């Protein structure tokens, strides 16, 4: 009995020594390593590290990465108060590498303005907003955020902002010289003093742009996407309030494009696109919408020099209808550089294999030897030459 107790005591003391050594090793790590650990934690958990030891008591105040997520809180006022307290207690001499603010449920613009102002004044590099913003009047983003010289990544996701017929307005031009990536959702573009809509031309380092469910205040004006560095562009359901309008591309280094959703826009290009590699047209057309053919032709004409082209089932069906009309048939471009055509087919479709093959053959009649890649039910068939 005594022997058993003695062994248990020795094991307990050994475990306590191991825990003390582990704590000492953790405390001996430099601040940069501990801050890197905090990078993978939400702000709530980062602040809670202050109870671990004296070493951690004020360490959270100099954290370079902040992630605010309302799902960690039961009550909205508690979450809003937590955000304000963290920002006010943080070491103001420290810059911010990334700030991510996610809010489930509705918020007003006041706290959003506070976060954006704080981020911009602390040289933020990566800034993400994902909120359901309820407005009683139009809201203009604080000028500090679109004039932030340190910003490299900007992601603005706004949900249901039109409940009160209001708009989240973007500036007529972004002055972000180091910005490389931009994602924007449910925001409104407007024209500048010269009557042009050209918001991205001053973003000299912009490489990736995603425009998702955005709105054009004056749908009679074309929006110009002008940027010499842009290589990756995604447009999802760019809406013009039911009016077909134009997007003019001036992007000579464009290499990859994705068009998704319900397109209400025609495309045009103001420059050559010699580096265009991949294009995906994965859209859902309005039934009996009169401009479907015009919109699709404008896309194909702009992307005529692509090397890899992916078409969704709805696009294939619309293209097949288009080819039945001689006036539209003559407007199709020649895909002189196309190497692979990918078709996303439904398992059960109303189009026969013969109709699909005739459509593909006509589409590629001026193309080089092209592989056709047929995808069904998320599974891809083997590549095979078209043989024409």
Automatic annotation (TrEMBL):
Pfam families: F-box (PF00646), LRR_At5g56370 (PF24758)
Record-linked SMART domains: FBOX
Start and end residues of each F-box domain: 23-71
Classification via InterPro entries: F-box-like_dom_sf, F-box_AtFBL13-like, F-box_dom, F-box_SCFL_complex_component, LRR_dom_sf, LRR_FXL15/At3g58940/PEG3-like
Name of the protein: Putative F-box domain, leucine-rich repeat domain, L domain-containing protein
Taxonomic classification: Eukaryota, Viridiplantae, Streptophyta, Embryophyta, Tracheophyta
